[in-house]
Amino acid sequence: MTETSETTGRWAIAIHGGAGSMTPETMDAEAVAAHEAALGVALDAGRAVLMAGGSALDAVCAAVAALEDDPHFNAGRGAVFTYHGTNELDAAVMDGRTRGAGAVCGVTHTRNPVHLARTVMEKSPHVFLSGAGAEEFAREQNVEQVDPDWFATEPRWQQLQEMKAKKLGWFDAGLKYGTVGAVAVDAGGHVAAATSTGGLTGKRWGRIGDSPLIGAGTYADDRAAAISCTGSGEQFIRAAVAHEICARIRLGGEGPQAATETVLDEVGLMGGVGGVIYATPGGETGFAFTTPGMFRGQADSAGLRVVGIFG
Ligand code: ASP
């Protein structure tokens, strides 16, 4: 674990499990309870790291790995299927202390893409590796590999069949973006962000969204905030959402909530929807979303521990 320097003594973490069309009317009580429990497990995994004096970087990786292993979310196990029936995973991590960053896309055998993203950051001279090359690196670095069946779940397979049968566009398949992410600030006032996703149901042609793109779906800078996004990736890329929020905070002097809402409005003008979570070096976390719901959770050193789904 990285040592912290006790700048504020306050720590906080926020997680998301994707923004989407969830409402109390469309989700039954059993599904609500299952998602809330899963969010709680991931939140506690990150919280335990911070409570023990660990770094924001370790905390976001622990929380995201828990969400990747949980089949309820579109990352790792339970990722959506591509048009050709495979699971192709993207992830990124960024350390606000150094602005070190690592990312991978299109991986098919790495159990926890967030761990591979971190290994790219720490053990390679690069920031972003893709596909077969990323997994060659994963094997060299002993990052856990699994049979692709590990990721496949029946509900996601049915979503693909439904999308094909109805000839839906990628954004119409229930408007559920189950991407996962975490942001945290540790007791030393350092922030970190991590995001992991299977992308969009039925994606083709090697499509990559915003999640693994540093500055779009993921960014962390101790001078501003840590940001993780979920939503319509194409618009999030075009608005460089995560970096834009940090730039508004750092250069424009805006508060994190105002900056987040302003940038989500810009995404909306481009025709995109989604959600953002943030953590600031001062010890704050928050979120905003323009979909009916977003799977989310927040915890901090003052005793906050809350999970939520609906708007
Ligand atoms: N933003 C992700 C992507 O475009 C999707 C999501 O948030 O679920 O790949």
From TrEMBL:
<feature type="active site" description="Nucleophile">
    <location>
        <position position="179"/>
    </location>
</feature>
<feature type="site" description="Cleavage; by autolysis">
    <location>
        <begin position="178"/>
        <end position="179"/>
    </location>
</feature>
<dbReference type="Pfam" id="PF01112">
    <property type="entry name" value="Asparaginase_2"/>
</dbReference>
<keyword id="KW-0378">Hydrolase</keyword>
<dbReference type="InterPro" id="IPR029055">
    <property type="entry name" value="Ntn_hydrolases_N"/>
</dbReference>
<dbReference type="InterPro" id="IPR000246">
    <property type="entry name" value="Peptidase_T2"/>
</dbReference>
<keyword id="KW-0645">Protease</keyword>
<protein>
    <recommendedName>
        <fullName>Isoaspartyl peptidase</fullName>
    </recommendedName>
</protein>
<dbReference type="GO" id="GO:0006508">
    <property type="term" value="P:proteolysis"/>
</dbReference>
<feature type="binding site">
    <location>
        <begin position="230"/>
        <end position="233"/>
    </location>
    <ligand>
        <name>substrate</name>
    </ligand>
</feature>
<dbReference type="GO" id="GO:0016811">
    <property type="term" value="F:hydrolase activity, acting on carbon-nitrogen (but not peptide) bonds, in linear amides"/>
</dbReference>
<feature type="binding site">
    <location>
        <begin position="207"/>
        <end position="210"/>
    </location>
    <ligand>
        <name>substrate</name>
    </ligand>
</feature>
<dbReference type="GO" id="GO:0008233">
    <property type="term" value="F:peptidase activity"/>
</dbReference>
<keyword id="KW-0068">Autocatalytic cleavage</keyword>
